[in-house]
Amino acid sequence: MEHGKYFKIRVGVILGVILMTVIFFFTRPVIEQRQDYHLFVDTRSFFGIPNAMDVLSNIFFLITGSLGIWEILKRQKFLATQRSWFWFFASILLIAPGSAYYHLAPNDYTLIWDRLPMSMAFMAMYIVLLCEHLSLRFEKALYFALFLGVLSVVTWWITADLRFYFLVQFSSFITIPMILILFSSRFSLKRYYFFSLLLYGFAKWAEVKDREVFEGTQYLFSGHTLKHFLAALGLLCLWWMVRVRKELREI
After folding, report:
1. Checking CA distances to 78, which of 31, 51, 173, 209 falls within 20 to 30 Å?
2. 110-139 pLDDT, tens digit each
3. pLDDT at position 169, please?
4. How far apart are CA 202 and CA 190, in angstroms?
């Protein structure tokens, strides 16, 4: 475990941000799923597939997840965080059928199968980062973290309240860059995490600008289709990082 100067203070900062996130979401009224979320601009059908571009662009997640799983299995004897990385890339692979199913007929029910693997991927990555930057002992919390991710989606479906789901997603997303900045890694090429986050940020921008991208590309592809590509490209950065990086120190 890292025992650098002010280590406990840095850990306290992370815990403080998580606590503030909990307070922020659970002092708000119930957050329901907006139905206009399901209204995507590109509804063209190809070969009988409705919303074809948003459906077929999930192939990028299938490719990235498969590459990641193959890389992790090859390195299983040398990777202390094998389980967390495996579940991360397995969840990425599962996003492909989950998201494709959702985009065939966008509604609250099909959205469950899109969000379940995404939540698992977020939580697996969170454990990876804790292991690589704080202590390998966090690997023991992997299945609990995956359970929390799944529970956040199930809770939304049962209660129609998105607060817990947003809490899990937002608290992990906001503290991931903090962990990267505040703590040193036991591996080289840490910058690839930042490349991945940057591409994810562009992907979220493209998602919001669904119609603008569609019109700006002369109806070639929409912002949501671009989101799938950019998000998968960011994940591909992580696959490449795992493939070529070197271990610098032990935790």
Report:
1. 173
2. 999 999 999 999 999 999 999 999 999 999
3. 87
4. 20
Cα(162)–Cα(9) distance, rounded to whole angstroms? 31
Length of the chain: 251
Q: DSSP secondary structure string, the chain?
A: ----TTHHHHHHHHHHHHHHHHHHHHTSPP-PPPGGGG--S----BTTBTTHHHHHTTHHHHHHHHHHHHHHHHTTTT-TTHHHHHHHHHHHHHHHHHHHHHHHS-SHHHHHHHHHHHHHHHHHHHHHHHHHHT-GGGGGGHHHHHHHHHHHHHHHHHH---HHHHHHHHHHHHHHHHHHHHS--SBS-THHHHHHHHHHHHHHHHHHTHHHHHHHTTTS--HHHHHHHHHHHHHHHHHHHHHH--B----
Domain edges within the chain: 7-244
Q: What one-letter code names the amino acid at 231?
A: A
| Distance, CA of 80 to CA of 184 (rounded, Å) | 17
* pLDDT one-digit tens code per residue, 178-223: 999 999 998 999 999 999 999 999 999 999 999 999 999 999 999 9
CATH value of 7-244 in 1.10.10, 1.10.1740, 1.20.1070, 3.30.1380: 1.20.1070
Segment 89-99 shows an average pLDDT of 98
Q: Which amino acid is at 216?
A: G
